[in-house]
Amino acid sequence: MPIASVIQKGSMLTVYDERGRQIGIIPLGNGGDTLSGYTGSTVSVRRGSFVVMYNERGRQTGLVPTR
After folding, report:
1. Which range of residues forms the domain containing residue 50?
2. Residue 3: exposed, middle, or buried by beta-carbon count in 10 A (0-12, 13-18, 19+)?
3. Total domains in the fold of the chain
4. Are 49 and 64 in contact (CB under 8 A)?
5. Residue 39: which CATH number?
6. CB-based contact 19:30 (threshold 8 Å)
7. Residue 48 and residue 39: Cα distance in Å, rounded?
């Protein structure tokens, strides 16, 4: 199911599909974690000196260092 939107609620990112149904939750850690962006299939979160990628269900799929 494609990602249509991602909304931060407190220390959680809630992932929604095109019908507005919640399809995943991504917990944010410390105060420095921020939403970097999202596409139809991934959500990117900046965690310190890394960007962590998640799928629509909130499972980690990748990790890359930032520059």
Report:
1. 5-65
2. buried
3. 1
4. no
5. 2.40.10
6. no
7. 21
In Å, what is the CA distance from 59 to each residue of 8, 48, 50? 17, 19, 16
**Structure tokens that stand for 67 in this block:** 């520059």
The pair of structure tokens assigned to 63 is 């990790």
Residue 67's pLDDT is what?
A: 80
Tens digit of each residue's pLDDT (9 = 90 or more) over 32-55 = 899 999 999 999 999 989 999 999
Instruction: Write out the two tokens for 3.
Output: 């990602």
Which bin fits 37, alpha (ψ -120 to 50), beta or left (φ > 0)?
left
Residue whose pair of structure tokens reads 């990748």 in the numeric block = 62
C-alpha distances (whole Å) from 26 to each of 64, 67 are 17, 24
Sort strands 5-9 and 50-54 into parallel, antiparallel or unpaired. Answer: unpaired
